[in-house]
Task: inverse folding
C-alpha cells in the first residue's frame, strides 16, 4: 500500500476494502496476561574439572555454562581433580541459578583427589586478590577443597538472603592481602540462614578465620580448627569472629590467634560448648591450652593440625563422646 495518497477525499475502493478486512482481524493484546517467561532446564549431573580430559578446565567456566533452573532435575555437581601442581588459578561466583533442597549445587573433590588435612596433598585453588568461591545462591555444598593465596577463601551470601548452605572439610590457609582476609565469611549485608560450617581447618591469615558478619544470620559452626589468624592483631576481631548472631559454636579449636581466639561471645553464646582456646575465650575447662601440646606440627610453615598422641583435646574428647574425628570434635550438625 506504499505510496497511496490516503489523505485524498475518496481513496480507491479496493484499498478501502482491503484495509477494512485487515482491521476486522486485529485483536487487542493484554500484556499483563502473557504466559510466564520460558526457563531452561538441564545442567543436572556431575561434571569434572580437570586440566585436560574433563568436562571443564575451570570452575568459572563450569558455572558460566551450567547455571540454570535445576528444579525437578536433581543436583549439579562439580568434581575438582588434583591436576595442577601449584593449584588451579581461578575464582567463581554462584549466581543466577534456581535451586531447591533436592536440586542443589555442590563443589567438591572425589575422595582420591582430596587433601589429607595438610597443605599440598590434594586439589587446590588459588588466585591473588580474589574471593575464591562465593555463593549468592541457596542450597549449596562446598567441601573438600584446599584454598590459598587469595583474599577470601569462601564467601557465603552478598545482597541476597540465602539459606541451606554446607561448608565442610576444607583446608584454607595463607590468605594475606593487606589485612582484609577471611577464611570463611558470612555476608554483612543480607542474612544467611541454616548454614552449617564443620570440619574445616583455617590457618595463617592476616585477619579472620571464620566470620559471621550479620546479627540475623544463623549458622552451626562445629568441629573447626582455626590457627594463627588475625596476624595483624586487629583489636576488633579474632580467630572466630561473631557479631552477636544466633549462631552456635561447638567442638571448635582456636589457637594462636592474635587479639582473641573467639571474638565476641562466640564460644559461649546460644549454648555453645566444648570450644577450646589458647587464651581465656574458650569454654571452661578448655582455656589457655598450648598449641604445641595439641597438634602434630604447630608452626607458621608446614603446619600439621591433626591432633597428636596425648593431646589435651583427645583426653577431653574421650571424656565427652564415644565418636571421634580426624580433628577436634565429634558432634556433627543436626
Result:
Amino acid at each position: 500500500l506504499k505510496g497511496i495518497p490516503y489523505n485524498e477525499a475518496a481513496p480507491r475502493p479496493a484499498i478501502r476494502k482491503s484495509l477494512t478486512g485487515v482491521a476486522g482481524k486485529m485483536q487487542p493484546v493484554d500484556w499483563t496476561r502473557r504466559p510466564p517467561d520460558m526457563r531452561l532446564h538441564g545442567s543436572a549431573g556431575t561434571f569434572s574439572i580437570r586440566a585436560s580430559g574433563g568436562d571443564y578446565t575451570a570452575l568459572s567456566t563450569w558455572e558460566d555454562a551450567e547455571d540454570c533452573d535445576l528444579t525437578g532435575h536433581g543436583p549439579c555437581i562439580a568434581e575438582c581433580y588434583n591436576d595442577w601442581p601449584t593449584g588451579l588459578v581461578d575464582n567463581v561466583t554462584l549466581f543466577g541459578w534456581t535451586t531447591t533442597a533436592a536440586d542443589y549445587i555442590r563443589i567438591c573433590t572425589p575422595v582420591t583427589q582430596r587433601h589429607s588435612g595438610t597443605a599440598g596433598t590434594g586439589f587446590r585453588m588459588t588466585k591473588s586478590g580474589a574471593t575464591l568461591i562465593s555463593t549468592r545462591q541457596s542450597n549449596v555444598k562446598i567441601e573438600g577443597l584446599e584454598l590459598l593465596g587469595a583474599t577470601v577463601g569462601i564467601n557465603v551470601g552478598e545482597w541476597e538472603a540465602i539459606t541451606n548452605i554446607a561448608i565442610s572439610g576444607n583446608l584454607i590457609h595463607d590468605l594475606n592481602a593487606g589485612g582484609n582476609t577471611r577464611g570463611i565469611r558470612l555476608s554483612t549485608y543480607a542474612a544467611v540462614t541454616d548454614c552449617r560450617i564443620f570440619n574445616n581447618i583455617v590457618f595463617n591469615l592476616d585477619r579472620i578465620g571464620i566470620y559471621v558478619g550479620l546479627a540475623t544470620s544463623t549458622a552451626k559452626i562445629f568441629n573447626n580448627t582455626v590457627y594463627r589468624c588475625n596476624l595483624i592483631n586487629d583489636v576488633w576481631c579474632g580467630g572466630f569472629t561473631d557479631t552477636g548472631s544466633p549462631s552456635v559454636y561447638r567442638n571448635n579449636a582456636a589457637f594462636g590467634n592474635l587479639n582473641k581466639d573467639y571474638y565476641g561471645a562466640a564460644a559461649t553464646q546460644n549454648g555453645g560448648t566444648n570450644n577450646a582456646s589458647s587464651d581465656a575465650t574458650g569454654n571452661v575447662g578448655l582455656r589457655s591450652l598450648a598449641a604445641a601440646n595439641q597438634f602434630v606440627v604447630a608452626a607458621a610453615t608446614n603446619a600439621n593440625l591433626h591432633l597428636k598422641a596425648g593431646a589435651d583435646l583427645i583426653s577431653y574428647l574421650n571424656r565427652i563422646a564415644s565418636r571421634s574425628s580426624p580433628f577436634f570434635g565429634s558432634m556433627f550438625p543436626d
Q: What stands out?
A: Residues 13-25 form the longest helix (13 residues). The chain has a mean pLDDT of 87. The CA atoms of residues 251 and 331 lie 7 Å apart.
